[in-house]
């Protein structure tokens, strides 16, 4: 279960770091981030988290994006991550990493709308970990320079894709799902 939780936690961190917060919608719709964890063999067999993105905005407003990027780049001081993302963004849909092993297959790629990661472990007929992040979120994380971010454009871009599953992960008797949806 710990290994299974790593992917969703990374995606959840990216979502919080990307600061996907709801703008004031004309219809008063609220965008919710939903997290559901099912562990049939564990002590807490079902956990559900429902958070309106407006609460995430409060947390994100306290994060200095320059510090966030500095800590991200600290491990790779010679790597210009925003420049790397701009180059990736310019490419047509393409595979970046493909690993085919005896125990698992991994694929990292970009299509016209999403940055994707799939992991298929031995014993599964399809990927048991799928991460699908809209390019708008990636752009926002790596291209926005200011500490105070304007969320309106990002939220408007995401509204057309809702409901949107960001992460699904299955391993043995455990599953995790993270998604966004609108609700009036």
Secondary structure: elements and pairs:
Layout: H1 2-18, E1 30-39, E2 46-52, H2 53-61, H3 65-74, H4 81-90, E3 94-100, E4 104-110, E5 114-121, E6 129-134, H5 135-143, H6 152-159, E7 164-171, E8 174-183
Antiparallel strand pairs: 1-2, 1-8, 3-4, 4-5, 5-6, 6-7, 7-8
Helix pairs in contact: 1-5, 4-5
Protein architecture, described:
With 184 residues, this protein is α+β, with helices and mostly antiparallel strands. It has one domain. Helix content is 34%, strand content 34%. It contains six helices and eight strands. The chain has an eight-stranded antiparallel β-sheet with strand order 2-1-8-7-6-5-4-3. The chain is globular. The two termini are 34 Å apart.
Spell out the key features of this protein.
184 residues, 6 helices, globular, alpha+beta
The major beta sheet can be summarized as:
8 strands, antiparallel
What shape does the CA trace take? Answer: globular
> Structural class, from helix and strand content?
alpha+beta
* Helical coverage, percent range: 25-40%
Mean pLDDT value = 77
What is the count of DSSP helices, taking H or I runs of 4+ residues?
Answer: 6
Number of domains: 1
Assess the beta-strand content as a share of residues: 25-35%
Oligomeric category: single chain
Q: Give the radius of gyration.
A: 17 Å
CA distance, first residue to last residue: 34 Å
